[in-house]
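Quick look at the format.
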Amino acid sequence: MSGSPVTLITGGGSGIGAATARRLLAQGHRVTITGRGGERLDEFAASVGRPPELLTAPGDAADYDAVVSAVESTVGRFGRLSAVVASAGYATFDDIATGDPAGWRDMVLTNVLGPALLIRASLAALKETKGRIVLVGSVAGVVYSPGNIYGATKWAVTGLAENTRRLVTDDGVGVTLVNPGATVTNFFDADGGPPDRAMMSADQIANAIVFAIDQPHGVDVNTLTIRPQPSPL
């Protein structure tokens, strides 16, 4: 167990983050999950039997002190850090012409600043293990959509992934951008529920994330864009 991989997942209490945590735990990994809602993290921990291989760290993904604390707690508990997954994010489901700007600031901070802070806080530990960074982007970050503010935040994540890769590849750290299409999670709760069209499951996206994490040293999977079938995009 002392040599088993250790992964920190932001937004790990639900959706894609939780599905990824569950799959990694089943493979024998040690996992830290973070999230704003301590109750949601606790519910996830209970659902997997509160194993000693799981650490919960309540905190805002856009709060640097909270992110640093989660990294330090992970290394303190498990002795190393093998991978991080930036899964925290959400959408305001409006556009630049008619939307309410009051919600945009928090979305931009969570979706763009959050992954950047995770990279900043974890990079030294990841260099020691030649670990991996996985950023959860979106199809909205590779396809233009009229007036889509959420899409703009995910285009920023697309750029962050490549810029980070060019910074750390000589250190043996891998960087993978995973771009999900429409996926059934609580992501759509603020929009009245998931749309009535082809959707994927959180487990299907988790498969892709775990695939990237499980690659051997020397192999860097750069970008995975995953769409449901049939898909208009």
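Next, a different chain entirely:
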Amino acid sequence: MTTPWLHIVGIGEDGLEGLTPATRAVIEAAEVIIGGDRHDSLPGTVRAERVDWPHPFDALIEVLQGYAGRRVVVLATGDPLWFSVGARIGRAIDPGDIVYHPQLSAFQLASARMGWSMADLETLTVHGRPVEQMIAFIQPDARLVILTTGEDTPERIARFLSERGFGRSRMTVFASMGGAEEQRFDGAAESWAHRVPAFNTLAVECIAAPEAALLPRVPGLADDLFEADDTMTRREVRAVTLAKLMPMRGALLWDIGAGCGSVSVEWMRGARYARAVGVEPRADRRAMAAANALALGVPGLRLIDGEAPAALAELDRPDAIFVGGGLSDAVFEACWAALKPLGRFVANAETAECEAVMLRLQSRVGGELCKVQVTRVEGSGPPSEWRAEAPVTQWSLVKR
């Protein structure tokens, strides 16, 4: 077993004083130290070569690999494995070459300041990521702790809350936690007016007004929450479809014929870090899908201009595939070949032609067939009538 040559050290606002003697000894014995501007003030006992974060940041792995075999320390903030650089490095360099030295994270410090149990809250980061992703977590009584960057970020989050009927939510911003210059700012989302330091941590206690928008993580969001045309997969059918697709943490969906993106958006909301690629040839529908993804808190939705099967060739292998229309033998063969083991394939059909393709494929490959039909009351008062919507034939199977 080789001796680890890379140490990733978390440091708080109290600097080296907050580290254990063993971790301080690692820093003092280092030959190379890589860190940011806020890590420049090291004592005279540290004689290592100092290297700033590379630009672009993606070059970090190559820089580290160039120092392999030397005593290297990477300085990070707080816990290096919690929304920090440590996980990124650990995916690219043999874990046997790395030792992690965690410090208290901003999440732990903020939770302690608020008196909140970490088991009962959501931890998020919008540091270097779209702020809109926090929208998916706005729910009654939810408690959120969010790493932010930029003095205006809490103000933007306050606006998201207020626009969705959560203006009374309590917000607290912490800066320089654990140091001599620690600051705290309190207020309500609807009246937030603080100017805060650029590097901060935000705690939010979501409080819903009676008119608040309810956006659960389970599938079946109301149709009127989406910008859409008449091709959208409707609420009840969408819920059944997502149940068969089974969103899972970090899993990738191909949404073929994405339309306004309603299935992709609900897939990404349904599990942490779930990803989706929407394949859609019409520019107006891709624009609607992008707007829906942003408004509903999943700005990472990727949209591709193209048609299956040609547009699928360069995509990463998916964990699930949804075909909302235009199923053909060629599309299915390309999808089935790309789908990972235990992957889920779901196709919906509203036309007789598409259903005929589906029935032929099901007789050859197997899977489950069902027909979904939704009947609604038309009108708001007597006399009222039940109106049946067009039935949808659904074929689903798991790749074993």
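The chain has three domains: 6-104, 107-205, 223-398.

See the schema section for token definitions.
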